[in-house]
Amino acid sequence: MLSAAIPALTLARPAPAETEAEGGLKDFKSQKQGYLLRVPSSWEQKEKAGADVLFVGKGADVGVTVSPIRINSLKEFGSLETVGERLLGTERAKESTESAAMLSSSSREGAQGTVIYTYDYKIDTTRGKKRIVSTVAIKGRKLYICNGTVKCSAPGLDCDPVGGPGTVEAVEAVSQSFDVL
């Protein structure tokens, strides 16, 4: 669904602003693409095709993609529930997905009044179990997706994060800090 709009190549871009924040976190701001988020200071920034930025920690990562689209707002795309159903439908349609289940979804307004949807779900794939926190927004005919992935060490209903205690909470905190300018 949403990931189909992600370009295949990473384009050269100027270095975004990074500042140290309190509590072992750092603020990351992309002036060019118009978003910001707060990530753990220990996470390393990496390059990934299709991602505007990717931060990697032990057993988890958070990446942001920004893609041009034809609609002006998330509400034009659908309600919180409709978009969540489409998201899970897309995950279930992947050949490697064995199961997908929504854990929670929420809607909030960003600092500039932009509607932001967040989905927390788990998937079992042929490559292992993952917990995903996906935050989406649309502003200025751009689709922003902040996707956090937590790798789980064992199959079953709960996610035992590879990165240990606090890994899921760290990804959730990054997701909640995401905003568009």
UniProtKB/TrEMBL annotation:
Residues 24-148 form the PsbP C-terminal domain. Pfam families: PsbP (PF01789). It comes from the Eukaryota. This is G6825 protein.
